Amino acid sequence: MGRPEHYPWTIGFQPYYQAEARIYARYVLQTKSSPKIAILYQNDDYGKDFVKGFKDGLGDKASLIVKEVSYEVTDATIDSQMVAVQSSGADVFFNVSIPKFAAQAIRKASELGWKPLHIINQPAQSVASVLIPAGLDKSVGLVSAGWLKDPTDPQWKDDPATKEWLAWMKRYYPEGSVQDVNNVGGYTAAQALVQVLRQWVMI
After folding, report:
1. Which domains does the chain have, with CATH numbers?
2. Mind listing the pLDDT tens digit for each residue in 55-80?
3. Position 170 confidence tier, pLDDT thresholds 50, 70, 90
4. How far apart are CA 151 and CA 129, in angstroms?
5. How many whole angstroms separate alpha carbon 153 and alpha carbon 159?
6. CA angle at residue 133 from 130 to 137, to 5 degrees?
7. Residue 75 and residue 98: Cα distance in Å, rounded?
8. pTM of the model
9. How far apart are CA 14 and CA 11, in angstroms?
10. What number of other Cβ atoms are within 10 A of residue 111's Cβ?
């Protein structure tokens, strides 16, 4: 969240996590009449920010959350956490994970035969680093949000900016995956910096 009164020269580049989570909460309330919600989150500020935003979005309906389970980045797997959220009887699963654990969670939910409304946060919705490792067949029906042009989406195949990015990847990062939206994120952040520097020079 921006605090320009304290940090006038600093601004967040992407939508902040609490705002993203509030959107998911509103979506749940609009699409499910009486949801039972389970949350898996990373036990640090990253995960807790999403959980706070989600609860803020639910407002006085935060009691719809029936289970919250955390994991540590040092964990080898999250199988036991997934069993815990599945056994809660939840029909909505808010999966606040980084790519490695998001892929594990998608795969484990499928192994358990659990088919909740499965929401994954934006940092973990990459096709290349999450959905393909999890199994595209196991990823059908996931809900997420994105603010970048996903290079795997056919609607962007003739987009000039996407073509420019593909040419940049071929020239400067040929070993990088053109399916990984995180590579689009890095490129876009660099573009923003270049624009800021251009404007600064013009002042």
Report:
1. 17-138 (3.40.50.2300), 154-202 (no CATH)
2. 999 999 999 999 999 999 999 999 99
3. very high
4. 13
5. 11
6. 95
7. 12
8. 0.85
9. 9
10. 12
